[in-house]
Amino acid sequence: MDKEIDISIVTYNSLQWIDTFIDSLLNQNYPKDRINIYITDNDSKDLTYEKLVEVKKEHGNIFNNFEVSMGKNLGFGNGHNDNIFKSSAEFILVTNIDLLFDADAIMNVVHAASRDNLTVASWELRQKPFEHPKNYNPITFETSWSSSACILFRRSAIEQVGGYEKRIFMYEEDVELSFRLRDNGFILKYCPCAVCWHYSYEHENQIKPLQFLGSAIGNMYIRFRYGSFIEIIKGFLFYFVFMLLPQKFKGQRTGLLKNFVNLMWNMSYFLISRKKSSLKFNFIGKSYELMREGAFYSYIKPKANQNELISVIIRTYGDRNNFLKEAIASVYNQTYSNIEIVVIEDGTNNAEEYIQSLIGKNIKNIIYKSIPKGGRCKAGNMGLSLANGEYLIFLDDDDLFYPEHLEVLSNELSSNSNVSAVYSNAFEVATKIISKDPLEYLELGYDIIYKQAFSRPLIWCHNYIPIQTILFKRELYDKYGGFDEELENFEDWNLWTRYSLKHDFKYIPKTTSMYRVPANKDNLKSRQREFDCYYIKALEKQKELKITTSPDEIIHYCTEINKNMYLFQVSVENVKRILKRYSIFNNFYYYARKLYYNYK
Q1: How far is Cα 24 from Cα 102, in angstroms, rounded to an integer?
Q2: CB burial class (10 A; 0-12, 13-18, 19+) of residue 303?
Q3: The listed CATH number (3.40.800.20, 3.90.550.10, 2.40.50.1070, 3.30.420.10) that belongs to domain 310-544
Q4: H-assigned helices in 245-297
Q5: For 501-520, where are the alpha helices, taking DSSP H only?
Q6: Is residue 535 exposed (0-12), middle (13-18) or buried (19+ Cβ within 10 Å)?
Q7: Taking the domains of the chain in order of start, what are their residue ranges?
């Protein structure tokens, strides 16, 4: 039987959102007689309260309970606190009213919460059309902080910590509550399968004055309570910089000065109530977590018939089952459902027992084959030959997809008939392996090395598409075959070059996957030497490829290459100046490459 849940809503001049929000609640697959609704209106100046009273009369009997009250405007968190402490269900969904739920959103998040133990305090719903860009663990879904635009709480956890901070009026109160929950030993999670549509921004460069000012002072409060002395000093520097920089909106400096008075008044309160645990809380710039590029990538709503089978081909070898389990888990966690997994084990059969244990359980559509030792290309080609999908993608056994990876790629590929492949950004993660069994590692650095829009002539020069980022149509494999088995490295570069000679690819500026590189410098150098040995051979393979083109296209290609090489040279000169200043010439190529692609 589905659990009884409470829904907490705070309104302020929210008249325009009420009808659509209530309609999305009425359309939920979750039983309405198991839902209690608590709405606190923060003294709206329009007809919000009157409209809510009408809604209660019209629809209140559909839900188990429907309460509407009005109070003073003491802020977002205080309004929710009123609702939280007058309700009683095991789970309470805190939500904005300016959003819409997918039909199965509440059902999915409650079912996810029901599977977790008492140490998990919250489950943040995924927002569309603009997904929040903060990073999280793509396997466990654990996150360092959660947005309260739409989030399910475990009542026992939120009551234990006392609800939202009363002295934060609006903005950053969700980060503070997240940190306080973690400070008390709780875990926070993201819930990619539960979706709400939150139309909070009209465009990428939109500045909201209330959010800007509220976030500036809220960030300082959080630093007082959870940050080190250095982080508090940095916070003041950020604050003063905001006052000195040109105004982004009228009244910016005045608002910051007014808030500064409140900041100094409340400073002792937050310092006295500092964190209890030894847990380190992140302060990255003026944010709290590493950001995944693509905050303003707008999700495409797929057509009803867009559900092509995607084959994910995973190559593995040796005793790498623990890596393989994480890779497969990242596929299982995908928000796209029509997936086939093809696992090819090169030279061993260590994964066979594990794969067999999956069949008929978590993953229904999985193919496994062990082959005699033949290398990466033979394994990849075997995977391609066994795959049944209309769309194909590779995933190395130590790399991971974020949950929306296949959804984003497939929607774009299905919606663009003129392209044969799509690719996105990926984190390059410097990883230190502590133990392989049990698998334990440290992720010491996240970089996005490649951010390159599709350029046919540029891919002739170098590979800017990491293998797990690209989803391609099966027809490319049918026409041009798979990997060149004479190559053991750069086989993907050769493949993308052959596939793109006559077909266009599309770049999606959103980070949706990650691939690992050694954090150990000696291992990294050894890996690079191995690549260097194959590079000459890969270049020879490039020379064998032919393309038929026109003079106009040749001129276009030359112009495109010259433009990209000019940008690269500008970046090289900038890096030379930096390296001369800091005397780190041995890292020249790495920084030149990184600066160039970040610039792009």
Answers
A1: 7
A2: exposed
A3: 3.90.550.10
A4: 252-272
A5: none
A6: middle
A7: 5-198, 209-272, 310-544, 549-600
pLDDT per residue of the chain (600 residues) written in tens, 0 to 9: 689 999 999 999 999 999 999 999 999 999 999 999 999 999 999 999 999 999 999 999 999 999 999 989 999 999 999 999 999 999 999 999 999 999 999 999 999 999 999 999 999 999 999 998 889 999 999 999 999 999 999 999 999 999 999 999 889 999 999 999 999 999 999 999 999 999 876 655 667 788 888 888 999 999 999 999 999 999 999 888 888 888 888 888 898 999 899 999 999 999 999 999 999 998 987 788 888 988 888 887 776 667 899 999 999 998 888 999 999 999 999 999 899 999 999 999 899 999 988 886 656 689 999 999 999 999 999 999 999 999 999 999 999 999 999 999 999 999 988 999 999 999 999 999 898 888 888 898 898 888 889 988 888 888 899 999 999 999 999 999 999 888 888 889 999 999 999 999 999 999 999 999 888 877 777 777 777 777 777 777 777 777 777 777 777 667 766 766 555 444 445 444 444 443 433 444 444 444 444 444
Q: How far is 188 from 178, CA to CA, in rounded Å?
A: 7
Strand partners, 473: 391
- Closest C-alpha to 255, from 293, 229, 217: 217
Nearest to 55 by CA among 88, 85, 27, 18: 18
Which two structure tokens, joined as six digits, stand for 517? 């590189």
Domain spanning 5-198: CATH 3.90.550.10: yes
Instruction: Name the residue among 7, 33, 284, 240 with its Cα closest to residue 145.
Output: 284
505 Cβ neighbours under 8 A, 6+ residues apart: 419, 420, 421, 422, 423, 454, 465, 470, 496
| Burial environment of residue 10 by CB neighbours within 10 A (0 to 12, 13 to 18, 19 or more) | buried
**Cis-peptide, bond into residue 129, ω within 30° of zero:** yes
Looking at 172-317, list the stretches that DSSP marks H as alpha helix, in order from N- to C-terminal side: 173-183, 209-226, 229-244, 252-272
Asked if the bond preceding 438 is cis, omega within 30° of 0, the reply is: yes
Tell me whether strands 366-371 and 339-346 are parallel, antiparallel or unpaired: parallel
Q: Are strands 187-198 and 310-316 parallel, antiparallel or unpaired?
A: unpaired
Burial string for 218-235 (b: 16+ CB within 10 Å, else e) reads bbbbbbbbbbeeeebebb
The answer to whether domain 5-198 and domain 310-544 are alike in fold is yes
